């Protein structure tokens, strides 16, 4: 049960795009260079964010990614769901309907299994906490630790580079 | 990011063992029959629960599994950790230390990354909720839905069966 590394990559790329603050698409090569990531694989990891309406992508030589909305309107839940899909981590296979209770009528299982309910309830706490975390708030926390991050990114972005 | 089916199997087997209420090890075949599960694979899934001190296992012809403690002392968190391991689902690879910030001294990264902190914080909410759910409380909820579960299991257990 491991969250894809794409979540870390994607969340960081959103922060980086905001720090860059450029009014043009940023190439995958440039984003990848920002965190020492493999460009082709990063490109693949960012596609679901385009589909989820977090980023927009432009094809072509001057193409790349831009934020589709402000960081305050993107939560960790959005990023996680874009990459991992909307399915819950706990998937009940209704095993209670076999064996001992295999002869019960279907109506006996209308109420969800108590284990399933408890597992899903706990997972909901997690998703709620993720949904309460906007990338803007996270960026702010990062800048509290290191107030120069935006300047550093913009200087780095201006350096000539392949 | 899917939780192993072993979590559903193991949690249900703990409930079943308690409902059975027998003062002897219950064979994997019997437990597997309780939920229509493949015995060999169930046996494999239950081994980590033995290691985690939730079940005890006895080898041999009359061997099998018993609860190592009462359901009130086993939480969903215990079962999840036994099966999935203690590692957090979100694993930060410290990508912030490369690229733009590759030349920073190690001391610049002493404070954890704000994304990592937020992801881990949210996951902690989930684990807290799992740790607050004892199997005894879940069993009680199941019996509220169907008060006959214990009787049904004990009748089923007494039936002659391979
Ligand atoms: S039947 Fe799936 S968790 Fe109980
Ligand atoms: S460096 Fe890993 S989450 Fe930020």
TrEMBL record, chains A, B:
Alphabetical list of Pfam families matching this protein: Rrf2
Signal peptide: none
Organism domain of life: Bacteria
The protein's name in its UniProt record: Rrf2 family transcriptional regulator
Provenance organism: Glycomyces tritici
